[in-house]
């Protein structure tokens, strides 16, 4: 599988205008995280759009590798579908289904900076259904926050999707029939503003911590 090929130059972003895997042209930057960047891309062979995540493997975090494994394993309708995964030079590349705005961006654009009770309840209900499925697959997310919850793209905009499984973990071993052990003194996992009390205390996280973050 080939990697990035250059099609045009941008003074603001060296990746804009380039093509991933000879198919996905990066047309707009959507965001920047601590482990990499995400772009909107258009297929060279259709009018379809995708999201492309790029991570520099020189950072030695390999978050995208972990995320691709969990997304493929879960195969949940409310998790963006993985389209392609690979490497190019020092880059780890993941191509996914494109989604709409995240909850934090939606909230920022609200004139009143306030969501209705009905809207909040709908978001919470959909999230609980997603986590019922994820937890039934023995996975915990560990980084729940408004930036990692988004609405669907265009005709799917009434649905809530869960993003970013780079910090996810199996909490139960099916082969050993064993729950992960409670440990203390661990570094904080997730985002301090939204993580559970146990995360701040340095405990090993489990399903209850996902629910508390929701």
Features:
two-stranded antiparallel ribbon; alpha+beta
User: How many angstroms separate the termini?
Assistant: 39 Å
Strand content: 25-35%
Q: Which percent range fits the helix content?
A: 10-25%
Helical run tally: 5
Basic shape: globular
Mean pLDDT, nearest integer?
90
Query: Nearest-angstrom radius of gyration?
Result: 18 Å
Strands side by side in the biggest sheet: 1-2-3-4-5-7-6
Biggest sheet statistics: 7 strands, antiparallel
How many β strands by DSSP? 13
| Helix-strand string | EEEEEHEEHHEEEEEEHH
Which class of secondary structure composition applies to the elements? Answer: alpha+beta
What ranges have pLDDT less than 50 throughout 5 or more consecutive residues? Answer: none
What topology does this entry show?
Blueprint: E1 4-5, E2 19-20, E3 24-33, E4 36-43, E5 49-56, H1 63-74, E6 82-88, E7 91-97, H2 103-108, H3 117-136, E8 139-140, E9 149-151, E10 160-162, E11 169-170, E12 172-173, E13 178-179, H4 197-201, H5 207-213
Antiparallel strand pairs: 1-2, 2-3, 3-4, 4-5, 5-7, 6-7, 8-11, 9-10, 12-13
Describe this protein's structure.
The structure is a single chain. 23% of the residues lie in helices and 27% in strands. The protein is built from 5 helices and 13 strands. The strands form 4 sheets. A 7-stranded antiparallel sheet has the order 1-2-3-4-5-7-6, covered by helices on one side. Strands 8-11 form a two-stranded antiparallel sheet. A hairpin with a 5-residue loop joins strand 4 and strand 5 (49-56). The mean pLDDT is 90.
